[in-house]
Each structure stands twice: as structure tokens, then as C-alpha cells.
Write a structure and sequence with these properties.
The chain contains 3 helices and no strands. With 168 residues, it is an all-alpha fold. It has one domain. It is rod-shaped, with a radius of gyration of 51 Å.
């Protein structure tokens, strides 16, 4: 329980430091400080405050403000440093993820290349089969032509033999 309370208190102080450094680093802060400093000298000119007392109060306020601002600025720097370290870790993890994804993409590319080689081989086989079928078809046509020639020759021969048999 105490850890949670300390963590909440730390987060609150960090947010306060961020808010203060943002406010001090703004144009509004420059304007407010300018009016305060100018107003201090106006009070002296109007005789409402002695010069030495105004300088003493103004110097004390400015010194305290500088001390607190330096503390808040350092807290902001520490917070920012931790945030940057977290971001660096995230970037490293993302880079590792990217490297792993790149390896996966490379493996997929290798698989795609292998598949393309297989497709090329299948295409070649299909072309060879087509050529073989054409050659077989041509051979079959040639055989049929030869058989037709043989039939024609046999028919002629039979006709000649019959003619010879029919002669007296």
C-alpha cells in the first residue's frame, strides 16, 4: 500500500514539475515577470516602498524562484530521460520485431521462388507432354497412312491374283 502511495506521489510531483516548467517556459510567464519587475520599480518611484526594501524582497523572491525552478527543471529532465529510455527500449523491441518479420519475408520469398521453380518445371513437363503427344499423333498418322498404303497395295494384289485366276 505504501508503495502505491509513494508511486502516486511521485507521479503527481512529476506532473507538477512538467506543468511548472511548461508554464515558466511560456510567453505568458515572460509577460507576468516583466509586469512584476516593472511594478516593483513603479512602487519605488511612487514612494510606496523604499528602494532597498524592494530590492531585498525582489532579490529574495527571484532567488527562491530560481531554486524551485531549477529543481522542477531537473525533475522534468529526469522524467524526460526515463521516458526517452523507455522509448529507446520500445524502438529496440520494434527493431527486433522488424528483423523477425524480415526473416519471415525472406523465408516466404524463398518458398515463392521454390514454387515458381516447380511451376516452371510443370510447365516444361506439360510442353514436353504436348510435344510427345504431337509426335505420337504424327507417328500414328504415319502408321495409318502406311497401313492404308498396304491395304491399297493388298487390294490391288488381290485383284491381280483374281485376274490371274480368272484367265483361261
Amino acid at each position: 500500500m505504501a508503495k502505491k502511495a509513494k508511486k502516486k506521489q511521485k507521479e503527481y510531483m512529476e506532473q507538477l514539475a512538467l506543468t511548472v516548467t511548461r508554464a515558466v517556459g511560456s510567453l505568458e510567464s515572460v509577460i507576468i515577470h516583466t509586469f512584476i519587475f516593472a511594478g516593483s520599480f513603479v512602487l519605488v518611484q511612487l514612494g510606496l516602498v523604499p528602494f532597498e526594501r524592494m530590492l531585498l524582497v525582489l532579490t529574495t523572491i527571484v532567488s527562491l524562484e530560481a531554486i524551485y525552478l531549477s529543481i522542477f527543471i531537473q525533475m522534468t529532465i529526469n522524467y524526460t530521460t526515463r521516458t526517452i529510455e523507455n522509448v529507446e527500449q520500445d524502438i529496440e523491441e520494434i527493431q527486433e520485431d522488424i528483423d523477425e518479420i524480415q526473416e519471415d519475408v525472406d523465408e516466404i520469398q524463398e518458398d515463392v521462388d521454390e514454387i515458381q521453380e516447380n511451376v516452371d518445371e510443370i510447365q516444361e513437363d506439360v510442353e514436353e507432354m504436348t510435344e510427345d503427344e504431337k509426335a505420337e499423333e504424327a507417328a500414328q498418322v504415319g502408321q495409318e497412312k502406311t497401313l492404308d498404303e498396304i491395304r491399297t497395295g493388298l487390294q490391288k494384289l488381290m485383284q491381280d491374283v483374281e485376274k490371274l485366276h480368272n484367265r483361261p
